[in-house]
Amino acid sequence: MKRKVIAYVHFHWDREWYREYEIFRMRLLRAFDNVLEMLENNTLPSFYFDGQTSALLDYLEIRPEKETLIKQFIKDKRLFIGPFYCLIDEFLTDENCFRKNLELGLKTAREFGCEDFVGYFADTFGHSACTIPILKEFGIDKAIVWRGCGDIPAEFKWRYENTEIDTVNLIRGYFNDIFSTPYDIEKKAELLKINLDKIAEKSGSTLLLPIGADHLGVEKDLLEQIKQINTILKDYEIQIGSIFDYFNIVKNRFNNFKVNDELRDNSKTFILEGSYSSRIDIKNYNIEASYKLHLADKLQKYYGNKYEKLIEYAYKMLIQNQAHDSICGCSTDDVHFENISRYKKILQIANNIIDEIKFENRLNNTKIINLSKQSYTGTIKFKTSEKLPYQIIKIENGFDKNLLCNTQRIPITEDYTKIYTYLVYLKDIQNGISDLKPSNDETDVFITDSCIGNSKIFLSIKDNKMFIGDKEIKIKDFIDNGDSYNYGPEADDYGQEGKILNSKILYKGETRSILWLEVELGDIFNIQISLDKYSPMLNFLIEWENTKKNHQLQFVINTNDKIKTTYSEDMGNIIERHFDSSYDIRKNLPKERGIEAKSNNAPMQRGVFTNGIGIITKGITQYEIFHNELRIPLLRATGLISNKDNTSRSTPAGPPIKVNDLQQLGKNSVQFNIFIGNKSELKNNIKNTYNECIVL
Q1: Are 152 and 203 in contact (CB under 8 A)?
Q2: How much is the pLDDT for 546?
């Protein structure tokens, strides 16, 4: 008896990748015109539109006359859309953006009449278990995954803490273009049997087969091809259906296997984890824009939701930028140029909403609002043209924000004045509005030309080496023969170390002091290490002109003990990972085709902790473990989207397009904080770094 195969027809639609957004949209018009025609002519029973509504909206912006037809197909359960607004990377988006993505996607999908939803992650680069409770929060109890699953069966329960969802592993992936190949029907049947046999090994009596691929239109004779292939296949009977048909048929199989972890096993599929350190400039923008937009949203809700539509507009731009090929830094230079343009617009909107609300309430820097439920103690930075009795760290020329937000005034030359940036140390600022009252505690910060510290943390320069407490830190440079997707090390390269040339006091203040270092490592690195009074964290600002190609720069902390466990942030949660820190990728580079080398790299969002030391980052989204060392990439400079000669991945992962900006030549800068303590302090230090306090 033949085993039933439910085949769902789809295409995976990257809005931008190896071609730019408008070019891909023109292709979308042709491809989806064809889908609608086939649905209308009953030559295609049903179609799944890739789990995202943004591509449908892109289509309708040019084809508005098709909306009624689309709504009818959705009503008839022949066209399925949502639940996401955009298919974003799971590890590079925070919990606020992930929720907003679902909120916007579900809103649009339901407006079109769709009510059937599955968390669709067909091509994201590994899968975060922290998405599970958020999906359930929005009423979604199903998911589809692929990359990172290893030997997991086709159906399983995927769990995070006390929440679980029925999950399908696409054993052979979402990419199945056999019906579009130029082969005869016998050859197509042969290729399909190879795939179906492999799917069958991990499935029950019913199999799930995706039909479609990246940006690939549907063959007009698909039903006829399937009819002919079914007469050839001895073990399988293919029928077009929906994802939801399959979930209903196999509903009793999910309890047979359970997974209580993230999905990042690359033994069967590439997870392309080098993308977490590609185009760090994009990651910096993303973290800043996500933080500022969330802050602006909370502030405007506090004052009556006046900017709701503007916030939604900005979030749509932000989520568009978080599509995996965009935020992962593996698209063309023109795509990333547009990404940066969107980020700048988002920051303009977020910052101006905050400025306008401050202007409308005109409290003249005498009040502060804490939008978090957690109290805040620490240093606040703000700008104004007023002369105030606080520490000044910067003076620049410009227009006062109150003037710029006043629609009854036009700034003139005489209004161009000095703008002061102040620091104020505050204690125990509670939720809501309170008086801006600086703490009068005496400073505990001390600084010399070779050290900086306070009562909680201490950094020193000894014999041209840098230490935090007894932990040595350095900058190292490695050869990188990789691409936008994967780091490509050389087998015998263990890096060159930077040399400290100078160190001196840059600034000595009651609230903040700054130590300056000059480090030579081919290029010259200017490092500012600042410390606020009573702060547990040293802040690093590293700036340099990158003149080298095909290399990776890492900030390396020797923790003095072999690293076995790390704790890092994911979707607002602190997750635990375990490592074999003696593993060396350079000794395990693949020799056979189709293999991606295992590595000790892992994604993070805003922080990681191990062996008594933690890093809070501001745009660095990856870390590596090597023996005693915690390594943070400052830059990964490569020049191809996909390099066929990548030493760590023996098969291309995309087109070998040259992307000059991926080399990150010219000015670069990164920021992060370091603290000494225990893992329980990681979450609080992240919240203090990304505090929700605004001087009004």
Answers
A1: no
A2: 98
pLDDT at 365 over 80: no
Distance, CA of 269 to chain centre:
20
Q: pTM of the prediction?
A: 0.96
Q: What is the C-alpha to C-alpha distance for residues 12 and 266, in angstroms, rounded to an integer? A: 21
CB-CB contact of 6 with 207 (8 Å): yes
Read off the pLDDT of each residue in 481-510 and give the average, rounded to a whole number: 96
Rounded to whole angstroms, the Cα distance separating 373 from 608 reads 23
Angle at 279 between CA 261 and CA 564, to 5 degrees: 35
CA nearest to 319, candidates 18, 121, 103, 130: 103
Q: Is the pLDDT of residue 669 over 80?
A: yes
Q: What is the DSSP string of 257-297?
A: -EE-S-B-B-SSS---GGGGGS-HHHHHHHHHHHHHHHHHH
* pLDDT single digits (tens) 35-67: 999 999 999 999 999 999 999 999 999 999 999
What average pLDDT does the segment 428-442 reach? Answer: 93
Neighbouring residues of 309: CB distance < 8 A, sequence distance ≥ 6: none
d(CA 145, CA 265): 12
How far apart CA 364 and CA 346 sit, in angstroms, is: 26
For residue 39, what is the enclosing H or E element? helix 21-40
* Residue from 261, 356, 270, 340 nearest 306 by CA: 356
Instruction: State mean pLDDT over 233-258.
Output: 97
8 A C-beta contact, residue 98 and residue 322: no
Cβ-contact 84, 101 below 8 angstroms: yes
| Structural tokens at position 610 | 């191990």
Predicted confidence at residue 137, as pLDDT, reads 97
Q: What is the mean pLDDT of the chain?
A: 96
Determine the Cα–Cα distance for residues 139 and 99; give it in Å rounded to an integer. 12
Nearest 5°: the CA angle 586, 590, 596 is 95
How many CB atoms neighbour CB 436 within 10 A? 20
Structure tokens at 169: 């592993």
Asked if the model's pLDDT at residue 366 lies above 90, the reply is no
Q: What DSSP element (H or E) covers 299?
A: helix 280-302
Alpha-carbon distance 152 to 161, whole Å? Answer: 19
DSSP for 344-367 reads HHHHHHHHHHHHHHHHHH--TT-E
Residue 222: which residues within 8 A CB-CB, separation 6 or more? 9, 38, 43, 44, 179, 211, 240
Give backbone dihedrals phi and psi of 663, rounded to 5 degrees, phi first.
Answer: -75, -15
CA distance 684 to 682: 6
Residue type, 312: E
DSSP 120: E
Nearest Cα neighbor of 633 from 516, 427, 495, 430 is 495
Q: What are the φ/ψ torsions at residue 345 (nearest 5 degrees)? A: -65, -40
C-beta separation of 125 from 271 below 8 A: yes
To which residue do tokens 């320069």 refer? 461
User: Band of the pLDDT at 687, cuts 50, 70, 90?
Assistant: very high
- Cis peptide upstream of residue 83 (ω within 30 degrees of 0): yes
